[in-house]
Amino acid sequence: MTKRYAEYRDSGVEWLGEVPTHWRLTRLRFAVTLNPSRTEVTDLREDAEVSFVPMEAVGERGELSLSQTRPVSEVSSGYTYMREGDVTFAKITPCFENGKGAIMRDLVGGIAFGTTELTVLRARPDTTDPAFLARLLGSPIFRRTGEAAMYGAGGQKRVPDIFVRNFSLALPPLPEQQAIAAFLDREVGKIDGLVEAQRRLIALLAEKRRAVISHAVTRGLNPAAPLKPSGVDWLGDIPAHWVRTKAGFYIKVISGFAFPSTGFLHGGDGERLLRGTNVGVGRIDWDDVVYWAREENDGLEGFELEDGDLVLGMDRPWISAGVRVARISAKDLPCLLLQRVACIRPKPALHSRYLESLLATDAFVHHFLPETTGVSVPHISPKQIVEFPIPLPPLDEQAAIVAYVDAQTGRLDALSAEAERAVSLLLERRAALISAAVTGKIDVRDEAEATEAA
């Protein structure tokens, strides 16, 4: 069991509180070299290969991908310089808040260049251990105070170097830093293993959920029902009494209105606008919301959403979690449809919930993906929606399928929610453990020594 140190003193820093008496109070600029100069490597040959580190190569739990290399001639200007053992963190939002950062290890030639959105800290070898430093920079205390110091607007906010230089910390003796880092490597590694196990379970449950839905809406509930070819390769055989038709005969597609952003309101005034950012996989998310002031006879009645409408994010319609389609409920109303979101309103012969399940299947992805437009932001058109080939059972059978899918996915969703809660608790435990260790709230020296002895 972890214990507290025998003696503490007030640090004089509100968020740091009491620290062990023998820890040295200092500022980060005295413990590291910040953003070392690339003049250290001016003698490198222009054709020498070095590691290249874009932002996507840096993980949120210290991971580092070194699959890319570049010749020095391509990266010596306009990129951030790093050396073996340097500690980095992403300074731009939301990467900083998400915890992106890593120790530079196993670099080609011991050198790397990468994104300019990384801040580089080189531990002073006589005072600071890189692994301890990396844990400190990844701790909630550093992230929270850094977030408060960010400057800039919107998605371009950054942590300034002056905050890093002046960051107050309590530094234990070097051997103790190494012991703390070793303890955290072991204990955090255990937690990370448990988190990964829960995330694998969540992924398996999501895969099972998609399979349940797909089988029900393409094969029905009667395993003995005679089948017939659908005439669509990726759809396969369907029950013989079903009809294969186009979605367009049974739905109305409404494209959103091009509301000018200059008229967006905040703070709850006006009527909510449903934007692409509000459409998730199977859910509507109003965390980021803008409003529009209605006027009499403004001609916007055709863009008013109704209870039971389906909405589809037309930009990047498919993400790793699934198709960005969701159903509007009474609690979402009133709201207006913004451009780049499609409203799909089924006619009486097509059950809204059955259609929702169809649109969530891989069959829909197979239909639209080959003809998706756009490179950086894939886009689906209303034409692709109405031309979607759908298997259509009688209306009463659609209702039965919906009830079955609800029952089956309800069980899977409950298991997934339980796993998500477990992940949340584990991550809270992880953050608390790191914070407690790097600020001296717990003494782990005996545990580290016991591990070394074992």
Please identify the oligomeric state. single chain
CATH architectural type of the largest domain: Alpha-Beta Complex
Q: Name the beta content range.
A: 15-25%
Find the CATH superfamily of the largest domain: DNA methylase specificity domains
Number of strands: 25
Q: Percent of residues in helical segments? A: 25-40%
Q: Short description, anyone?
A:
GO terms for molecular function: DNA binding. The chain is built from ten helices and 25 strands. The protein is of the alpha+beta class.
Any overview of this molecule?
- With 454 residues, the protein is of the alpha+beta class.
- It has 2 domains: 197 residues, DNA methylase specificity domains (Adenine-n6-DNA-methyltransferase TaqI, Chain A, domain 2, Alpha-Beta Complex), CATH 3.90.220.20; 172 residues, DNA methylase specificity domains (Adenine-n6-DNA-methyltransferase TaqI, Chain A, domain 2, Alpha-Beta Complex), CATH 3.90.220.20.
- Helix content is 32%, strand content 20%.
- It is built from 10 helices and 25 strands.
- The strands form 9 sheets. The chain has a 4-stranded antiparallel beta sheet with strand order 4-11-8-9.
- Helix 5 runs antiparallel to helix 9 and helix 5 packs across helix 10.
- The radius of gyration is 28 Å and the shape is elongated.
- The mean pLDDT is 93.
What is this structure's SSE topology?
Layout: E1 8-10, E2 18-20, E3 24-27, E4 32-34, E5 49-53, E6 69-71, H1 72-75, E7 80-83, E8 87-90, E9 101-103, E10 111-114, E11 118-123, H2 130-137, H3 140-148, H4 161-166, E12 168-171, H5 174-219, E13 227-229, E14 237-239, E15 243-246, E16 251-255, E17 271-274, E18 291-292, E19 310-313, E20 318-319, E21 322-323, E22 325-327, E23 335-337, E24 341-346, H6 352-359, H7 362-368, H8 382-386, E25 389-392, H9 395-438, H10 445-453
Parallel strand pairs: 5-10, 17-23
Antiparallel strand pairs: 1-2, 3-12, 4-11, 5-6, 7-10, 8-9, 8-11, 13-14, 15-25, 16-24, 17-18, 19-22, 19-24, 20-21
Helix pairs in contact: 5-9, 5-10
GO biological process, one term: DNA restriction-modification system
GO molecular function: DNA binding
Domain Type I restriction modification DNA specificity: 323-407
